[in-house]
Amino acid sequence: MVVIIIKVKLLLLISVVIILVGCNSFEEDKALIISSDIIKSVKTVPNNFYNESDERVKVKKVTNQADFNNTWSQFELKGIPNEIDWNSKASIFLAITESGSCPFRFKAVELYANKKDMIIHLDEQSKSGACTADITPRTMIIEVDKDDVSGIVNVEIFGVETHYGKTPKVKLISE
After folding, report:
1. Would you list the domain boundaries of the chain?
2. Overall average pLDDT of the 131-144 stretch
């Protein structure tokens, strides 16, 4: 009888430990939504995008107006480049492919606690239900707080799994 009570107590203790460990998230896994705004979203990508991009995704961080103007041209954008408050802001240029019938819409930017990994959340918008299997270009420019993204190395793109078959993760290009 005493052996059974000890075994039950031991099983209970093991169960509590498993539950506590399972519910505990590690600090590096935690992420925080950061302040971000979409500046521009157009159907174009940089020259040589399909040869140079990793996983059909290219992400570049810009922190001054001269580099912004240069990147604007590289990404085949038309018109006059936006003016940014470079004292506190940075711009993220995201070139990606999408279905012509289901364009991606920007949702949010999330930063992992390690401050080296960032997630850009997109949403696939279907105009008529089913998405076509074509590949069309899309460039988005996202404004973020400069300090929040100063140490970013990798970028994951969430919300594109239906089109890409996975979650792309690429190196951030910095000027």
Report:
1. 27-174
2. 93
